[in-house]
Design brief:
- The protein is an alpha+beta fold.
- Helices cover 38% and strands 20% of the residues.
- It has a 4-stranded mixed sheet.
- The longest helix is centred in the C-terminal third of the chain and has 14 residues.
- It is elongated.
- The chain starts with 15 loop residues before the first strand and ends with a helix.
């Protein structure tokens, strides 16, 4: 009888059940225990060259527990919102009744999830973007919850009106926090830090800015800024790490020159500024006073 290949082609790129591979003659028990394979969950393996990620572990959990619905931060990852890192707990919900599941790295909730709030996406059963947003809003600290809802709308495909409706109908632990977070979300911020800047300004005495403001001068589009005060011609931009990308510095300078030529002043905010909120608010207030 021929010896199975050490790395069969069907097992190179995705997670698989070890018992299925052995039963199908693709691997022996001895080969499965070799360093070629990495164990994700009990009976779930992947080739050692496959990049380790939260999404990979979610797929492995779905193989091992096929009745599971991916929920919480893991659902956010499935919808394209990176709220969980490679080694963070994978969150799933199993129907009731279900056998006891206690596995390190797996957070299991037992509940009968409303079928209308579950979708089949990329071969996974996952809570809808709207359901995910409400769950996150009810379980995370308030500002983190608002940022998560914003990201689920901008990048995860959630409809903000439906999110707010679901939050309004929610009952039980966290429902009050979920309603508050969903009411504060605007679904416009392109990063969690932009949400935090907006919340900080909203809690101050500063006039409310226009989020994602389009600046047009003499009929010509100049730029879209994170926040703008059109009357004072003041823009506020969150300066994230993406500005260090190759070629971005030159593009940023060209954009800044266009804004200045159109008569706009720009205040830049970094992560460090958020550690000194009073100082940041004072700086914005001073810039607004100059623009009056």
């Amino acid at each position: 009888m021929p010896v199975p290949a050490t790395v069969p082609a069907p097992l190179r790129a995705a997670a698989f059940l070890g018992s299925d591979a052995v039963r199908g003659g693709l691997l022996t028990q001895g080969q499965l225990r070799s360093q070629v394979w990495r164990r994700i969950w009990p009976d779930v393996y992947v080739h050692r060259d496959v990049p380790w990620s939260h999404g990979l572990r979610v797929r492995g959990a779905a193989l091992r527990w096929p009745d599971a619905v991916v929920t919480g931060r893991s659902a956010a990852v499935v919808w394209g919102v990176a709220l969980a890192g490679p080694d963070d707990d994978v969150e799933i919900t199993l129907p009731t009744p279900a056998n006891q599941v206690r596995v390190p790295g797996l957070r299991v909730r037992r509940a009968d999830v409303d079928a209308k709030r579950v979708l089949r996406h990329d071969r996974l059963w996952v809570a809808s973007p709207e359901q995910t947003a409400v769950e996150l809003a009810g379980t995370l600290p308030l500002d983190d919850g608002v940022a998560a809802v914003d990201q689920m709308v901008v990048a995860g495909g959630a409809d903000l009106a439906e999110v707010r409706w679901l939050a309004g109908a929610a009952l039980g632990p966290g429902s009050r926090r979920a309603r508050r977070a969903c009411a504060l979300a605007d679904g416009l911020a392109e990063s969690p830090q932009e949400t935090r800047v907006r919340l900080l300004i909203g809690r101050s005495q500063l006039p409310a800015p226009v989020a994602q403001h389009r600046i047009v001068d003499a009929g010509r589009f100049i730029a879209r800024v994170d926040f703008g005060w059109p009357a004072q011609r003041l823009a506020l931009e969150y300066d994230g790490l993406w500005h260090a990308e190759p070629g971005q510095f030159a593009r940023d300078r060209e954009r800044l020159n266009r804004l200045r030529e159109a008569g706009w002043q720009v205040v830049f905010v970094t992560a460090r500024d958020l550690d000194s909120p009073d100082r940041l608010i004072a700086r914005i207030a001073a810039a607004l006073a100059v623009g009056r």
